[in-house]
Structure formats: structure tokens, C-alpha cells
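Sync notes, pocket subgroup
Present: LS, DG
LS reminded everyone that the earlier model was apo-only. Rerun requested with pyridoxal-5'-phosphate included. Inputs:
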Amino acid sequence: MIREITVILVGQQTPLRQALTALNEGGLGCVMLVDGDQRFVRVVTDGDLRRAILASDDLDQSLAGLAPVTPLTASEDTSAATARQVMNRAKVVHLPVVNADNRPVGLFHLPSMDAPILLSAPHMGQEERQLVAEAFETNWIAPVGPHVDAFEAELADLVGMDGAVALSSGTAAIHLALRLLDVGPGDTVFCSTLTFVASCNPILYQGASPVFIDSEPESWNMSPGALERGLTDSRKRGKLPKAVICVNIYGQSADYDAIGRICDAFDVPLIEDAAESLGATCGGKASGTFARFGIYSFNGNKIITTSGGGALVSNDLAALDRAKWLATQGRDPAAHYQHSEMAYNYRLSNVLAGIGLGQLRLLPARVEQRRAIFDRYRNGLHDVPGMDWMPEPNWSRSNRWLSVCTFDPDVVGLHPYAIMRQLQQHEIETRPVWKPMHMQPLFRDAPYYAHDEDHSVSDRLFLTGLCLPSGTGMVAADQDRVIAAIRKVLGA
Ligand SMILES: Cc1ncc(COP(=O)(O)O)c(C=O)c1O
């Protein structure tokens, strides 16, 4: 990243001709001007030299005649990420690195720097652009149209449900599911604690109260034991929850055999938050299809994306019709815009559904690619002491949306947060495992059922887990860079 600079240091008495030769040999598009003590004066770019020649037409004049500039420099501990930010802000491609004595010791050269590696960047295929163009050509620029219809049909078909409703987000889908189940003020809704806040915010939209359920260690998803304890307590108090939202974290299904059985026994409807797990399976059946309502997200960071979007799936077609009606402002059947119920503007645009259609057709390939990314990490880091991986029970086939590892703090001596900060210096984006909802200030008063009464699995996962870059747009060399950086950070 930091280039050797000995060949491109030039003194103030150097003639333009010689500076041009040095610049040519350096191949970085600049030389560095230093004073008699070898202290940094300024960067001289090929543009600076060209302008000096045009102004005087004298190749033997010295660099001392160049106009002074305010020098922009980095220190020896400046990270690549910070250097990139400084250069982008200043609109320059060279950033000299100077030591404490202001002597040049290196150079950040933007075009030769490795690109940042992101956590889960969108990955477009060939067909999406053409499908979006089709929406433009036919002028279906609206939250209805043939792409929306086709997207819903193909999604329902792919996962094996009777119907799907395309929406503006996964959050909207959860909100509509709660509305369809008549969740309202005074109700409680059980929800997995180890998730993104979008799983449970809609509980608050409906004026209801969440109760959080811990994970179990086998899949990191909702603990059947904790769920059963919570439901038993609720029954004793004479008020069962109106719904259970079970989340499939990081692309892995929860244990629906057990969870479905428990919800049925207490006669509480289940919503499956499969925002992260489209393409995964549980016992061979598609993720998102185990509950009365399943939801998916097509946010930009998901395994497939519509840039932003979501879907509600169900075998209850009457409920899906009502969901569509609620998602389009709940118009009564009258031409004069009559409304009898509060509703929402939650439909997916036909333009974005075009992106979704192209992406949906890539889903099987994307699942295999994400799984291969996970395997490459696991193989490349198998010998690092104290490092472990998100498990995959034998009834589950995860889509490995994100590759997640854990670090035993007693062995590694570093919290994942510290590892994340150090990887950031290498322009590698990672994230700690979701902060559980029962630990969030927003939900400080919400009841919580841990896996064992004296052992919270999600607390431990939050303290030890780290999500690694998992986008399918990465190439093997990117992953090797991540693996090498992790080894360096851990001294392994
Ligand atoms: C588990 C989970 N549930 C719900 C959502 C909400 O999806 P969206 O961002 O499409 O609203 C997300 C993702 O953002 C998620 O990760």
C-alpha cells in the first residue's frame, strides 16, 4: 500500500528535465520535493511539471520556482481507510507519508490501493438491467405492473407457497403480518432476541409489547425450551401472546419442528422472519414457509436484492389479498377515494420488481457461492486457536448469508469489536453479531426468557461473534486478503 519513495525524492535545485525523468521512472505520476535536510516540501505531479514547462519553455529551470502549496500529508500510523478518505475529500491521488521529523517515508497512491472489502455488497447479474429497461420502455413506472406480478408468482413458486405479496421492505411485511393477526395495544408478541431491530419494531408500531426469547446453541435461533417456558408463564397469567416472530439468523433456519409444535400446542400463530434466509432449507423445505406468514427482505445487503424491498408469503390467499389492500392505502371499492380503515403505502415498485426478477433467477447460484465463501474462510483459518464458526445442524442447510465466526476471549484476548476496528484499518468491513434486543435501551423493560434460566446464549454470541465479508461479488484474492488480515490481527 505504501510505496517505496527513494527514487522519487528530488531537491529544490533539481532541473525540470531531471524531475521529469525521475517522475517517468517512478511510474506513480509524481515526485516528492524535499529541502536540504530531506524534509518534505510538496508533491510535484506530472501536471505541475507540464504547467511549469508551458509557462517558461525552459527545461533547465529548477523546481525552486514552483509556487508553494499547503502540503497534505499522512503520518506513519494513518490507516489506508483514512488515507482514502483524505484523498477523496481533497480530490488528489497522492498522499505522502512523513515521519515525526517531516521526512517522507512512503506514499499512498490511490490507483494502486486495494479496494475496500465490504460486508455484503449488492451483486447484480446480466438480466436485471434489461428488465429495468423493459419497465421504462413500457412505462410501468408504478407500484403495480407486470414485473410485480411475475416477481410474486416466481417467488411463491420458488419457495412452494400459494402466494406472495411484493412490498417496499421486509419490515413492512412483518408489520402487515401483525396487522393481519389483529395485534394491537395491550397485546404481547414473542420475538427472537438475537436479530436486527426490524424484526420487532413493528410490534411497537401496533402498540403491542415484545417479549424476547433467547437462542439455542445448535442453530443460534429461537430456543424451543425458552419459548415453551415463556408460553407456559403467559398461560398461567391468563394471557397468551398474539403471535410469535421467529427469526432465521444469518441465513440459517430455526428448528421449526420443535417451534411449530410448541406454537400449535398453545394455539399461538407463528410469523417466520426469513429476511436473511431466502434460499436456505430446514428438513429440505424452503425457509420462510413454516409459519402462517413468512417474510423476506430484498434490502441491498441481502443474498438477493431489489435495492430495497420485501415480501409476505402465505398459503392463506384471502389474507394475502387483504395484505395487498392494506399495502395500497386500503381503498374501499369506490371511484371517489373512500377509506374505512387506516392502511399503508407499502407496495414494491414495478421498476424494482424488475431487479428482483433477475436476482431471483440467480438465487440458487448465490446460495452455493455464499456457502463456498464460508467454507473458504473456515478452511483458511481452521488452525487459529480460539476461533470457531456458526454451526449448521443436520436438519438445516443455511444460505450462509453472512459467514460468522466466534473468538474465545480467553484464548484470543481480543473482543470482536477490537478485531473489527483493526480490520477496518485494512479496509475490511466486519460487524459484531447483532446486539440482542433484550440488551437494547429501546426494550429495557421487555421480559426476556433465556435458553437456561441462568445462561443466556445470545449474550455470549454478542460478546464473541463477528460477521466477515460475505458478498458474492468478492473474488478469491479478496477472501485471501481477509484471511491474511485476520491472521495478522490475531498474530496467528
Ligand atoms: C432479521 C431481519 N428482519 C427484518 C429485516 C427487515 O428487512 P428490510 O430491511 O427489508 O425492512 C432485516 C433486514 O434488514 C433483517 O435482517
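DG: The chain has a mean pLDDT of 95.
LS: Residues 97 and 106 are 5 Å apart (CA to CA).
Action: DG to write up.
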